[in-house]
Design brief:
By secondary structure, this protein is an alpha/beta fold. It has helices at about 15-25, 45-55, 65-70, 85-95, 110-125, 135-145, 180, 185-200, 325-340, 350-370; strands spanning about 1-10, 35-40, 60, 75-80, 100, 125-130, 155-160, 205-215, 225, 240-245, 250-255, 265-270, 275-280, 285-290, 300-305, 375. The strands form two sheets. Strands 7, 8, 9, 10, 11, 12, 13, 14, 15 and 16 form a ten-stranded mixed beta sheet that branches. The chain has a six-stranded parallel beta sheet with strand order 3-2-1-4-5-6, with helices on both faces. Helix 5 runs antiparallel to helix 10 (about 350-370) and helix 8 crosses helix 10 (about 350-370). The longest helix has 20 residues, at about 350-370. The chain binds nicotinamide-adenine-dinucleotide.
């Protein structure tokens, strides 16, 4: 049985815990033909690394990612540092022939993302990016219901990803600067929405956007527009955009860190030629589905409980027991590990993440220029 030895880089933080838990159950969801070893957890803070490694079940810890990605005792490198570090670590890991899982957004800009994709293709390593929501069974099921499924072809996408988690935080940490965080709400949480929209409705071809950031001069001050000269290097804290897709679907999107009462409020609705489907992360096992060909006597939106039998990644035999954040992490990591074990590509790969980075870039350009921005050509190989 193939054994995959993993190094987790940046493991002392939030995603360090989520990925550690994911690896612990990834091979236990159902039978797999490989073994995973949680070999080493790395964090720049050596004490945090040692504590996290011991609490989260890693064999060893280190404060030096460079020596770890070069080690012959490691097969796969999982990067959960702030985005500004992703590229350097991924390129080094690929140069040493390691398979790479990288958290989203893949990096801070399109040229950097392309460099990572080119290196991964040339190196022939399995690569995947942490767009975890597309892996949860309800969203996988929505994909199956859409074209060529019962719902038909998508016509209109309406998506929101809103939070109040950062509402009261004056120190944004790495999320507060372009060098470490890349793009603000658009790149951080909006990137998940873009991934889901493209996964379900196909490629976006053009966008028109507004991005704003908080004016912090008084507690009750409102937004700066991105076009304000004094905005400088501040990152967007809320964004709204409309998009046109290659297949004619039209979309509206909203992403923001300043939405009181919104707790990881990731939700979307899709109108399609055969009906409609709606998803809300706060009920992650359910889809609301409406079918146009229903008999009049029973027509109307119904709740579909996504259970075992509908989706293989629901592993409880009893419907309604619920899956959560860790389950989604485990499913995406199991798919990454299975791709390595089978020696085949994983998805969403670095190339797909370049696409998402291109959309983030286009949104930013549109917000700055007050004009529609057309997407560039897709990267080679996707
Ligand atoms: N997929 C999701 O749902 C999701 C959710 C949250 C964050 N993320 C992404 O995960 C990544 C990390 O986010 P987070 O919330 O875990 O951040 P975090 O700040 O909680 O953790 C980052 C960790 O990286 C460590 N680090 C910094 N520089 C390092 C270096 N040079 N070498 C080794 N370690 C270093 C820090 O000490 C910290 O422990 C980001 O790309 C973020 O966008 C994804």
């Amino acid at each position: 049985m193939k054994e995959i030895r993993v190094a987790l880089i940046g493991g002392g933080g939030f995603m360090g815990r989520a990925h550690s838990l994911g690896y612990s159950v990834a091979t236990q969801l159902s039978e797999v033909d490989f073994r995973v070893r949680k070999s080493i957890l790395v964090d720049v803070d050596g004490d945090a690394a040692a504590l996290a490694a011991s609490a989260l079940g890693w064999e060893a810890s280190s404060a030096d990612w460079r020596s770890v990605v070069a080690s012959p005792d490691i097969d796969a490198v999982d990067i959960v540092t702030p985005p500004g570090l992703h590229k350097e670590i991924a390129l080094a890991a690929i140069a040493h022939g390691k398979h790479v899982f990288c958290e989203k957004p893949i990096t801070n800009d399109v040229p950097g993302a392309l460099e990572m994709w080119d290196a991964a293709r040339e190196g022939g390593v399995t690569n995947q990016v942490g767009f975890n929501y597309r892996h949860i069974p309800a969203i996988t099921h929505a994909k199956e219901l859409l074209s060529p499924g019962k719902l038909g072809a998508p016509l209109q996408f309406r998506g929101t990803y809103l939070h109040d988690a950062l509402f009261f935080i004056s120190d944004f940490g790495w999320r507060g600067s372009k060098a470490t965080g890349g793009s603000g709400a658009t790149g951080d949480i909006g990137s998940h929405l873009i991934d889901i929209a493209e996964y379900l409705c196909g490629p976006i071809v053009r966008v028109s956007a507004l991005q704003v950031t908080r004016d912090r001069s008084h507690a009750d001050s409102g937004w700066h527009k991105t076009t304000d000269a004094e905005r400088g290097e501040l990152l967007d804290e809320a964004a709204t955009w409309i998009a046109e897709f290659e297949n004619g679907t039209i979309g509206t999107f909203s992403a923001g860190f300043y939405s009181p009462g919104k707790k990881n409020a990731l939700a979307f609705e899709i109108d399609a030629t055969g009906g409609a489907v709606a998803f809300d992360w706060n009920n992650p096992d359910q889809l609301i589905v409406d079918l146009l060909d229903d008999q009049a006597a029973v027509a109307g939106p119904r709740t579909v409980e996504v259970s075992q039998g509908i989706q293989e990644d629901v592993w409880y035999p009893v419907p309604g027991l619920g899956q959560g954040y860790v389950d989604g992490m485990a499913i995406q990591l199991r798919r990454f590990l299975q791709a390595i074990a089978d020696d085949r590509p994983a998805t969403p790969n670095f190339g797909e993440a370049v696409r998402i980075q291109q959309v983030i870039d286009a949104i930013e350009q549109s917000a700055f220029t007050n004009a529609w921005v057309t997407m560039p050509d897709r990267p080679k190989g996707i």
